[in-house]
Design brief:
Elements lengths: L7 E3 L1 H8 L4 E4 L2 H6 L4 H15 L3 E8 L2 E4 L3 H9 L4 E3 L4 H6 L4 E3 L1 H11 L3 E3 L10 H4 L4 H8 L3 E4 L8 H10 L3 E5 L18 E3 L2 H13 L6 E4 L10 H18 L6 H12 L3 H24 L2
Parallel strand pairs: 1-4, 2-3, 2-7, 5-6, 7-8, 8-11, 9-10, 9-11
Antiparallel strand pairs: 3-4, 3-6
The structure holds pseudouridine-5'-monophosphate and manganese (II) ion.
Manganese (II) ion binds next to loops.
Length: 305
């Protein structure tokens, strides 16, 4: 394993896997600190780790706890993170700040990618990526996840881009950034709570083995930058577009009325959609993260064969 700074703590299971060249899957933690309420967040995090182990890979949940950058959390640490009230939500801009100030923080997709690459972890599972927000033409609110995907060489498995975003613009920025956007067994871009959309997927592959072969060619070409594997939510867990879009519109109107902007946007919308759907959005969210964890583990295993 590469030499890591002194403020990094690699969990023994993850260290052992990296040293023996065994498959590892990174997991983000903003979904724990800002994406779901307690105790659903910690139950989700444990269940997702179990899915990865069951597929023959080692999970590495990434977070900052009291200024220590954790790569892999123990059971007590996961519980502690899930309970932190004032956790920061960190990306490329502020990961160093959280560490230097001794804070606790959930890592976004962008920050998790940075840490995964630093540790030599090739594959990362999440729910949905950040993207171009609706109204970005005036607010300029475009997630740092997109530029990170353009520069950091990690495979991110997600259920597409959330319908709270401007999904066509998100796809355009991914193209500009040179991100390989791969639909897993789908011809359209999945839209988080729904398995498809009216947007054509740029590239399609139907097996973890083919995704692994694609990545090996990208490696040989030394392209750098990330791959986004868009994995549709399982059919039984979907929320029909007309239902979820109603909740999104209500949440967005409330957000505008309350003047919420910046980092608070995604957590606010997720929380309101959770309340408006009486928990249904959360159940779908958990199902799709587990589904992504399974595919990410299969890709990690394929990369090592
Ligand atoms: N997907 C979820 N829940 C979340 C997020 C994604 O189901 O909480 C988080 C991810 O950590 C993602 C972040 O990186 O939202 C994007 O935030 P922003 O739009 O502020 O960049
Ligand atoms: Mn933003």
């Amino acid at each position: 394993m590469t030499h890591l700074p002194s403020f990094v703590d690699v969990h023994a299971d993850v260290r052992n896997a990296l040293e023996t060249n065994a498959p590892v899957v990174a997991l983000e933690s903003t979904i724990i600190t800002h994406g779901m309420p307690f105790p659903d967040n910690v139950e989700m995090a444990r269940a997702v780790e179990e899915e990865i182990r069951a597929r023959g890979a080692i999970p590495a949940t990434i977070a900052v706890l009291d200024g220590v950058l954790k790569i892999g959390l123990g059971t007590d640490e996961l519980e502690a993170l899930a309970k932190v009230k004032d956790a920061l939500k960190i990306s490329r801009a502020d990961i160093g700040y959280a560490i230097s100030q001794g804070k606790s923080a959930g890592t976004t997709v962008a920050a998790t990618m940075i840490v995964a690459q630093m540790a030599g972890i090739r594959v990362f599972a999440t729910g949905g990526i950040g993207g171009v927000h609706k109204g970005a033409e005036t607010s300029f609110d475009i997630s740092a996840d997109l530029t990170e995907l353009g520069r950091t060489d990690v495979i991110v498995v997600a259920a597409g881009a959330k319908a709270i975003l401007d999904v066509p613009k998100t796809l355009e920025v991914l193209e500009t950034q040179g991100v390989s956007v791969v639909g897993y067994r789908t011809d359209t871009l999945p839209a988080f709570w729904t398995s498809g959309s009216d947007l054509d997927i740029p590239l399609r592959l139907d097996s973890a083995a083919e995704i692994s072969e694609f990545q090996k060619v990208r490696d040989a070409l030394r392209l750098g930058g990330g791959m986004l594997v868009a994995n549709p939510i399982p059919a039984g867990d979907e929320i029909p577009a007309e239902i979820i879009n109603g909740y999104i519109a209500t949440a967005q109107a409330e957000m505008a009325a309350q003047g919420i902007s910046g980092k608070a946007v995604t957590p606010f919308l997720l929380q309101r959609i959770f309340e408006l759907s009486e928990g249904r959005s959360l159940r779908s969210n958990i199902a799709l993260v587990k589904n992504n964890a399974r595919l990410a583990a299969d890709i990690a295993v394929a990369l090592h064969s």
